[in-house]
Amino acid sequence: MIIRSRAFSRSARLAASSSRRYVTSSALHDLLTKEPQGPSVQTELPGPKARAAREELLNVADWQSLNMILDYYKSYGNYAIDPDGNAFLDVFAQIASIPIGYNNPTLLAAATTPEFATYLMNRPAMGNFPPAEMAQILRDGILSVAPKGLNKVSTSMCGSCANETAYKAAFMYHARQKRGIDTDFTEDEVMSCMRNQAPGSPDVAILSFTGGFHGRLFGSLSTTRSKPIHKLDIPAFNWPQAPFPMLKYPLEEHVEENKVEEARCLQELERIIKECKTPIAAVVVEPIQSEGGDNHASPQFFQSLRTLTLDHSILLIVDEVQTGIGATGQFWAHEAWGLDIPPDVVTFSKKFQAAGWYYGREELQPDRGYRQFNTWMGDPVRALQAKVIIEEIRRLDLLPNVNETGNWLYEQLEDRFGRKGLVRNLRGKGRGTYIAWDMDDGPTRDKFVVEMKKRGVNIGGCGERAVRLRPMLVFTRRHAEVLVGVMEDVLNKA
Q1: What does the alpha-carbon distance between residue 357 and residue 349 come to, in Å, rounded to a whole number?
Q2: Would residue 184 show up in a list of annotated catalytic residues for this protein?
Q3: Which of 117, 123, 295, 331 to pair with 242, CA 20 to 30 A apart?
Q4: 123-150 pLDDT, tens per residue?
Q5: pTM for the full predicted model
Q6: Catalytic position from the list 375, 420, 440, 444
Q7: Hey, is 336 helix, strand or coil?
């Protein structure tokens, strides 16, 4: 099956029907000229070469979660190419982790430099033996886009690791506040921690929200509340969870109802904080609950959350692993909250191709070495990669592109599908391309995802019945037109 002509003809009609002038920057246009002409599926899925590769993988390791085998040499821009030559418009982007397109030429050029090669060949154990230029790499890259009020960074290996080490920082901060900043450990603390007992191993908690996702390591998994499959059979800390608002959409049509729902959740959160027998060191929250179903809350909700954490001397950790690096049209999604006092910690990963957490308070650094430590503590190659990604975002002027494309796409989804009831609870208006909607149920959503892939669009789900868009920052209106055209084919035949 080849879908190219049908998708393109519908895209042309969409472009003609739009009265709004849209211009892709010349640099971005030049970057995308080498993309495939459009989605093209010419074999059954998976095709014969992909099936063979899949069997090889399954013979050597557990790959039960496999979605699709790809040819990373041929994939380019917004298009993922599989071993059989099928081209997919990728609006899932490696679970929201590709920012500037497959095989971005600027990034490829950077990867051939002596600097990249040196750190690939001589990967440093950065806690002990960091490169002489590491501070400059961080200043020029990751720290150049630090959230307001946070001027330091701790690098790590992945999003789960970023949250895990941020939790450790919160626990150490909490203990130092209780013990006294300059007070040394007692002998009882030193001895009891080796038995995993108090006071050296205190009973302290991180509070998270129902529906949240923060990773799959032991501490981060205890704060993950999205799907049972992530947590089954794994021991967990008995940490508290608070309800996250379940808003009604469109937001502008349910203002008063949603205010009541957010007030209910805030009231319950404060009750939990006051009554919890385990001291709470920090609250962790996503700006948009992503794996849990793309659940939104208002800036006022998050402002009140920040006030509560300050009133109760609890740290606020904002998990921007999926929402960060421009996907919502702002570099950091929590910028939309308009906080007077910034979060204490912001974690990141995915689109940065690097991971870690920002902070500002000196007291969030351990009082001595080896308390926040592992062999790698991040990777200078990934820090260099993040630096190039930031430079490309600026050079290609990608944040305006995300906003312009997202606004147009949301309008099209609302007009063509939302008003007809073909999609439900459309959300993400004014949040760049960070858009999602619900289908009738989980099986209907899963069938939709499969049918989109058969027509050359790789799209993802989340929550029980939601479809989420996670395109790259180089996703333009031209790509959005193709997406809408393919969606029309699928939904009108459902």
Answers
A1: 9
A2: no
A3: 331
A4: 999 999 999 999 999 999 999 999 999 9
A5: 0.95
A6: 375
A7: helix
